Each structure stands twice: as structure tokens, then as C-alpha cells.
Amino acid sequence: xxxxxxxxxxxxxxxANPIASREFILSMITEADxxxxxxxxxxxxxxxxxEDKKALKSRLxxxxxxxxxxxxxxxxxxxxxxxxxxxxxxxxxxxxxxxGFGFLMVPGEAPDIYLNHxxxxxxxxxxxxxxxxxxxxxxxxxxxEIERVLTRAFTSIAGRIRLKRKQIVLEPLSRKVHxxxxxxxxxxxxxxxxxxxxxxxxxYGDRGGGLKGRVERVIADxxxxxxxxxxxxxxxxxxxxxxxxxxxxxxxxxxxxAPADLKHRDDLRHLPFVTIDGSDARDFDDAVLAKVSPExxxxxxxxxxVAHYVRPGRPLYxxxxxxxxxxxxxxxxxxxxxxxxxxxxxxxxxxxxxxVLVCEMSFDTLGRRLGYRFSEAVIESKxxxxxxxxxxxxxxxxxxxxxxxxxxxxxxxxxxxxxVLLQRRAERGALxxxxxxxxxxxxxxxxxxxxxxxxxxxxxxxxxxxxxAANVAMADFIQRSEE
Length: 483
Known about the structure:
- It is a single chain.
- The protein contains 12 helices and 23 strands.
- The protein is α+β, with helices and mostly antiparallel strands.
- It has a 5-stranded antiparallel sheet with strand order 5-4-3-6-7. Strands 8-9-10-12-11 form a 5-stranded mixed beta barrel. A 5-stranded mixed sheet has the order 13-20-19-16-15.
- It is elongated and about 95 Å long.
- The mean pLDDT is 88.
């Protein structure tokens, strides 16, 4: 091994027969300012044994496959340039199947391209790759051959330790990652069979072998519900905490609305908006209201104005885009936004002023829409209602006395609106797609105790009809704006 390699100690720790690091090979070719053959590189590294030369060729081949090197027509290794990309190569993302095969997802291409088991040995779920697509023979579906891995989705992964004779492997606790990881033995980190641990991937198998890694930390001796959550967080790269700049921006937002927040907004705080959600709902995104008149009825649908607080180019916005959605677990949630917003300012809690976007729609007595209007507004929800309670009240025409008369009048109007709009949809032959929703129950230990179909009441359908009406109005608005 050439001692001038600054990474020689790292290579010695990783491999029984260490060779020059990739960084050192790249710097050597850069300094040479020309392509170098494998023999020239071996000479500069003072390699003489057949084993060392064979190891060097394996590394050079791996660097070719990963795109770190390119080869000229005289078998010389050089630095790659944009012209090296094959004209028929495409970029895509790997989607792995638990059975070992996978698919290449290419933007704008449908369907996804099949990847056989052999191809999938070189890549992992979520990897961004450069690939060539070949037409299937004899009517078979097209397949893809990986040219180069551009970015790796996993640098570490959680799994279960397995002691197998003289080897220690980590079996990933992810149905999308099926390759076991051969772990380095470290006397300072004693491992037991069945332990749950996180391993750092040190070798992706570019030298022809499988995945290799080393244990970063042991999480637990067994897989409890709490540890299962830890594993999911790790293997799906779900952030438990928000970055400091995101927290700072959220903390700077005042909980009480200022006069500047209300500028150019309709003040609808006097109207009896209500939220209707499940009993276990943690935040309330939308509120509804209806009024009946001899000419027909008016329906208001309000949604929390998250965009007022989450502005493009700011840390809150960037973090929300990165997270994409809130992730719910049996006993916890990984929110898309800090709790101050998700459960606070962007949740339409009763008797609190909240900023919203409102769709106000007018209909005749037959449910034909006469007009609509979108506006930024401020409301104050007058009640937090539950589906089952509302359904019971509507069925029995009886509501608790603690609800204010305007709220009761709005509930009755909402029921009438729902019935008219539902009849209108049926008359025009709209599809009624019923997809059963599962309801999962957990015991005190966090284990699954039962699973069944969630009940769908008239109150559920009422809210769905209101949302459909608002969505149709928005679609019409967008279409007219583009004309």
C-alpha cells in the first residue's frame, strides 16, 4: 500500500487486503492530467503481487460502475465528463419489492421499468441511478440495466443482529431492503443474537460482494412497540425534531392575531362556523356553515390558511416540503409543521380567532350552483363537533341544549344542503365510490388489538359533500383563470 495515501489507515481497517483509496486514485489521475492504464496506476502505487493488482482492478471497475471514472479507447482510466453519459441513458429512482426484484421509476415514463434480482443486488430502494432501458424480447416487458448509481438513499439502516457461525450480519427491518449487511467484528462492541441495532454501510458491494457495514449503536435487545417506532423513524429517515432555524421562526410567530394579520380579510367571526371531525382528531383543518333561504341556500367551507405562516423560501416552508406530510403512530405523531402551528394557529379550535381561506357558494333549491366566491378571512369556530354525535342529532332531530341556536340552525341547514346536493349528483349520474376505511385499535402496550371497518355516518357524508362542492368550485375557478 502506498503510504502517501492519506486514507490508507481507513482502507486497512475496512479490508484484509487493502488497496489505494478512491480519493487517492482520483487525485493521482488528476495530477497526471491524462488517462492512466491499470498497469500505470499499479506502477505508481508500487504494486507487485498478483493479489494487489487484482484488487486494484476490482476497485477501478467499481469506480467505473459508480461513475467516478471513465475509460478511453486505449483502456486508460480518466475523469468523467458530461459527454460520457450514454444518449439512451435515463435517470430514475429505484423502488424495491420485498421478493427481491424491483422497478425503475422514471419521471414521465409509465409504466415503471422492471429490474430483475441480479440487477437489484447492486442497488437499494430509493437510490437515484443512471440506467439504460432495453426492449423486452418475444413480447416480454422492457428491462433496465444500471449504468451508474448517482446518489444512495441509505447510508445507515436499522435491523436485527444475527450471529451466523463466524459471521455477524444485520437483517434490515424494512420490507424494501432485503440485502443482509455483513458487519465488521469489533471486540469493543459485543453483540448478541436478536439485538436491534443501527449499522453504517461502509461498502455497497461495488467490489463484487454484498453490503458491508459496522454497528453504529445498539438500540435494544428486543423489538418492543417503542423500538418498532424507532426503527421506522430510522429506516424512513423521519426527523423527530425540527431544525433550530425552523423552531426559531415558529417561536417568533405570535399566538394572538395582530391587526396587520386581519388586513384585507373578511371578518366572519360572527358566523356560526363549526368543525366536525372524529373523536380522536388532533387538529381541525376545516369548518363549515350553511344558511337556507326561500331562493335556495348558501354554503361556506373554510380551511386553515397555513400559507399565511409558511412562506416560500423560509425555513418553515423548506422543512414542510422536506417532510411532505405528518406521520401518525399509535402513541405519537411526527408533524409536518411545529406543534405551535399544526395544533395551534393552523387548527380551527373553538372560540379562538383563526385565519382561513373560505369558499362561499350559493345554490338554488334544486342544488344548482348559482355562484361562488373565494376570500381570505378570519373566523371563530363556535363548536368542535364529533361525527357520531352529529349523526345521532340528525337522526333523532335532537341536539344538546348547550349548543347555541345559530349553531343548531346551521347544522339543520347543512343537513338540507347535503341531501339536495346528494340528490343532484345522483340525477346527473355521478359515480359513488365507496372505499372502506380501516379502524385500528391498540392495547395499552402499543400492540395491535383489533382491526375492523370504520363506521361511516351521515355526518361523514355531509362533510364529504361540502368538500366536494368546494373542490368543484375551485376546479371551475382554476379552469376559468387559465382561459
